[in-house]
Design a protein that fits this description.
Helix content is about 45%, strand content about 15%. α1 crosses α13, α2 (about 20-25) packs parallel to α13 and α6 (about 135-145) packs antiparallel against α7 (about 165-180). By secondary structure, it is of the alpha/beta class. The protein is globular, with a radius of gyration of 20 Å. Strands 1, 4, 5, 6, 9, 10, 11 and 12 form an eight-stranded parallel β-sheet that branches. It has two domains: about 30-130 and about 215-330, Glycoside hydrolase/deacetylase (TIM Barrel); about 135-205, no CATH class.
């Protein structure tokens, strides 16, 4: 239902031409794009995490669409400079990728390299260390492989049917919301570990298959087009962690990347990045630790005012559920996110 509403809104803004009328007022000065996977489309009928992936063909289309708009493709350091110096003579766009997936190197990198486009990859260090728990992918595997799932939820023994495609999507949505609503990452991961152990899903193998190794990261980081950013150690929801843990995750995530790759990461992405995962406390800690920029997943384009909130920057999601070139026009116009944000330029609370 939510996807249908968003799609309808994007279509209405595009075909009515309202996005073009709104752009002079809400288009801002630039945008930071967020992507996760870039890989060929899978044929599986059950893909609850499809929003996290786009095809290489669509990435090419996005680049072509942006080139037609004559925007500057810039690094995160250049984003910071333009916001600090209020240099907005030309609109700009920055590509960022979260989590350090192997397909970023195999599929996205050759495309961006060919076009000479700089980009950033934010890496949780437990992923290349092969200690990471990609619980959303593990949950997908549990639901995909089983016709029903037995577990204890909120103190009650439950059995969730997941035999048909529709049941699988409903089961995943129910379990995902239950897990994200838990009071801490520790509680959430304990529940996921119970499920994966019970149903024979190898979480370590998922991390090994999907994420770049340190060697692969070193290879891609050697290219001047590539910025490696921090993304904590364990991909935690920082807002649910105590102050000590939140600081440690940010500090150690940066330190491990520096030790492994030989350069200090100056840019940060908050895991998950929405208002339930990062807020004013996290923005302040990132600033205290000296990060030049820190990005959320709160939707929005950049405005001159973001020069004062460099550790709370919004991004535009290039979402696998909405792979239509015309949606790029709407999103970059600022119209869609302006309506989503109630016409507020800054959302840092």
């Amino acid at each position: 239902m939510k996807r249908a509403i968003i799609r309808s809104g994007l279509e209405a803004l595009y075909f009515s031409g309202a996005h073009r009328l709104m752009e002079p007022f809400v288009g801002g000065v630039g945008a930071i794009l967020v992507l996760h996977h870039v890989r060929p489309a899978r044929s599986d009928g059950f893909q609850p995490n499809r929003l996290l992936e786009i095809t290489p063909t669509f990435l090419e289309a996005v680049i072509a669409r942006l080139k037609a708009k004559d925007v500057d493709f810039v690094t995160l350091d250049e984003v910071r400079r333009r916001l600090q110096e209020q240099d907005f003579r030309r609109r700009f766009v920055t590509f960022t990728f979260d989590d350090g997936y192997r397909d970023n190197k195999e599929w996205a990198y050759p495309i961006l390299k060919r076009h000479g486009i700089p980009f950033a990859i934010y890496v949780p260090t437990s992923f290349p260390d092969r200690l990471g728990e990609l619980w959303w992918a593990a949950l997908e595997a549990v639901v995909a492989r089983n016709a029903s799932i037995a577990l204890t939820m909120n103190g009650r023994d439950c059995r969730i049917e997941s035999g048909t495609r529709g049941e699988k999507f409903a089961a995943f949505e129910l379990l995902y919301r239950w897990l994200r609503g838990m009071p801490s990452d520790h509680d959430m991961l304990d529940a996921v570990r119970d499920l994966t152990t019970r149903y024979g899903v190898d979480v370590g193998a998922i991390c090994d298959e999907l994420c770049m190794s340190w060697e692969e990261l070193s290879e891609i980081a050697a290219d001047p087009l590539v910025t490696i950013g921090a993304h904590t150690v364990n991909h935690v929801m920082l807002a649910k962690a105590c102050d000590t843990v939140a600081r440690s995750e940010l500090r150690m995530g940066r330190a491990v990347l520096e030790a492994a790759l030989g350069r200090t990461p100056h840019h940060l992405a908050y895991p998950y990045g929405d208002a339930t995962a990062a807020g004013p406390r996290e923005f302040a800690i990132a600033a205290e630790l000296g990060f030049r920029t820190a990005v959320t997943t709160r939707p929005g384009v950049l405005f001159p005012e973001h020069g004062t909130t460099l550790t709370a920057l919004p991004r535009i999601s290039i979402n696998g559920e909405f792979q239509r070139e015309r949606y790029i026009d709407v999103l970059l116009s600022g119209a869609g996110t302006a309506l989503w944000n109630g016409l507020r330029r800054l959302r840092v609370a």
